[in-house]
Amino acid sequence: MDTTTAIARFDEVRADTERLAAPLSPEDQTVQSMPDVSPTKWHRAHVTWFFETFVLAENEAGFTPFQDQYWFLFNSYYEQVGPRYARPMRGVISRPGAYEVGDYRRNVDDRIRDLLDRVDEGTFAKLAPTIELGFHHEQQHQELLLMDIKHVLSLNPLQPTYAGRPVAGDGTDRLGWVDIDGGLVEIGSEGGGFCFDNELPRHQQWLEPYRLADRLITNGEWLEFMADGGYRRPELWLSDGWARVNAEGWEAPFYWRQTDGVWFEHTLHGTTPLDPGLPVCHLSHYEADAYATWAGKRLPTEAEWEHAAWTYEVTGNLADRDSFHPRAAGPATGGLRQLFGDCWEWTSSAYLPYPGFHPAAGAIGEYNGKFMSNQMVLRGGCALTPPGHTRASYRNFFPPGARWPVTGLRLADDGRRA
């Protein structure tokens, strides 16, 4: 990557964030509907703060921040940078408003471009990894921006839509299985392109032979689980999961609502009758695990998922700007479908460091490593994931009780069956 390429990529990523925010009013962009959700304008400002903090502050001659208090308001979790505003309180920040955040973005954009225009080759070589990390960081927040506004709009009794239109499923084919040889395999980034530090180092792992379902579980299949008492049978659930079912009254996936005996699903394109052929989504890890137990199967480990995915091209329903929602798997191919896109897939693996992992020095090292506790790994990407942002080695992670991300499941079991 040279400076010309970097500027073009910077402009592309930054413009995409603004395109995603464009359908939203300033009022929409201010709401925080629960502690895990951040306001749209906070996402827009935080990714700008990232470039200002980690690129401009150390490399711009005579640097001064755009606004002194923005570093306090828009720092997310970087303790070494300084104090930050409490995450659950982001929705009470009525000022700066959405337009003022736009001013902030334009100021930092101009200064980044100016820096890249002037920088010498040696300095750019040192800057390039952080700038590229900033691109992928902003893409993560583009996905989160959509997940978060989905939750915000779901609570509005007027049932407003964000954008897009329904895309009907083509019916559901029978679930198929793909046998995968085990053995001593290599897991982790192969190099040759961007990866996050949590994808390293590449290392060996032993896998017994296993099978993966050829597609994601659908809404229709989930209805069968519910009809068989899935949310009422403690023997199907992990202990913490069963406690959540009872404490929070779970009876169906997040965003499902029943009216006059008909199930509806809230989506970014509106609240519509449930389509049985589409992948079930917005499941917690606990729900995914309970379904797998009910089906007599299990969730794949992250190593099993990655080993299977390496032979497939990274294509699928990613960055869906038509429906902003998972789509049906399509006809059987004899191989694995929906590996990339549609829904992030829960694995049975806890989010832990790979053997030999060391976070980067300084505040930038807080990006991933500090979260390696009480989280579960997801793989593959979803319908809201920007193109070029996921790969076979990508490790996403969420707490096991999280239901607001676009999360689904793929079944696994052991060895070949007749």
Automatic annotation (TrEMBL):
Keyword Oxidoreductase: yes
InterPro entries, per the entry: CTDL_fold, DinB-like, EgtB, Sulfatase_Mod_Factor_Kinase, SUMF_dom, SUMF_sf
Pathway info: Amino-acid biosynthesis; ergothioneine biosynthesis
Gene Ontology terms: biological process: ergothioneine biosynthetic process
The keyword Iron appears for this protein: yes
Domain DinB-like: 10-143
Keywords tagged on the record: Iron, Oxidoreductase
Classification via NCBIfam families: egtB_TIGR03440
Listed name of the protein: Sulfatase maturase
